[in-house]
What we know:
This protein has a domain at 122-154 and 173-274 and 297-326: Alpha-Beta Plaits (2-Layer Sandwich), CATH 3.30.70.1880. The protein is α+β, with helices and mostly antiparallel strands and 340 residues long. It is built from 7 helices and 9 strands, in the order ααααβαββββββααββ. α5 packs antiparallel against α7. The protein is elongated. 24% of the residues are buried. Belongs to the UPF0749 family. Pfam families: DUF881 (PF05949). This is DUF881 domain-containing protein. Keywords: Coiled coil, Membrane, Transmembrane, Transmembrane helix.
Amino acid sequence: xxxxxxxxxxxxxxxxxxxxxxxxxxMDHPLDAGYEEAARRRAAGGAPSGGGRLWLIAxxxxxxxxxxxxxxxxxxxxxxxxxxxxxxxxRAERGTEEAEALQQEVDDLRDHVAELRRASLTGGSGGAAExxxxxxxxxxxxxxxxxxxxxxxxxxxxxxxxxxxxxSGFADTGRLRDRDLQRVVNGLWSxxxxxxxxxxxxxxxxxxxxxxxxAVLVDNRPLVPPYTVHAVGDPQTLRSAFEAGAGGATxxxxxxxxxxxxxxxxxxxxxxxxxxxxxxxxxxPAGPGAPDDEGPEPSGTATPGExxxxxxxxxxxxxxxxxxxxxxxxxxxxxxxxxx
Length: 340
């Protein structure tokens, strides 16, 4: 059966650039419709008016004036600031000079006080006065004696978070307590020490050995181990009396039970400074009829100068042992404030 011709195909011939319509649109219309509309409005409105130009010029001039005035004020204020700095520097220099002059006056007054003290000690009843100053810690002391070095046990305090007063098991930690130092120092006083110092801190009749946190305090000044205790007196007498007394027993117990490290040695010469703070509680004027009680002369060398400066000496008599009632720290009382 012969095939009938089908419908004639539509002509699909198109332009070669039909697929590039987007690029053509961009090239033919580079501006958005909104931009074109704005351009038409500006063209219809005409050029800016003269009043607008005047306001623009006025604003620019005002801005320039403000900037110029600020620069002028800054430049004008520079000399004033420099003058103020110079005046402040001069005032600081004058204050420094005044402070130096006052410090010099203080030094002169201290020297004068030392001269008066030295003169009073060399007059009537000088021996008793100098002995009192020695025992009270008012003057520095140089002489033979013993040196006792105390330290915590090996590894003491590792992992310990509390202070010496925290917990009942502190005695088992191998750390030296304030009470231990009190007993050792009292043992030295009982052995006949004329003067005692811990880590350079002079002890007097009103000295207190206490604990605060992890620190051991002597007269409210913290000390750190090792604790070096110096005692002035006859070395052999001090050593034998200390080891045979309560102080030696305390030291031996600390070594045996808690591992506290301690060593006692004799020294040919020790220098103990004067006490840092002394308070005069009572005094009696020395009249013409005052008794001249020379008393026993200590084996140390007393130095009445301020801050431990050399200002005089006492005749030395090795072997003298201070009576128990004259020792500034009676046995068992170091750490308790009292009046000698």
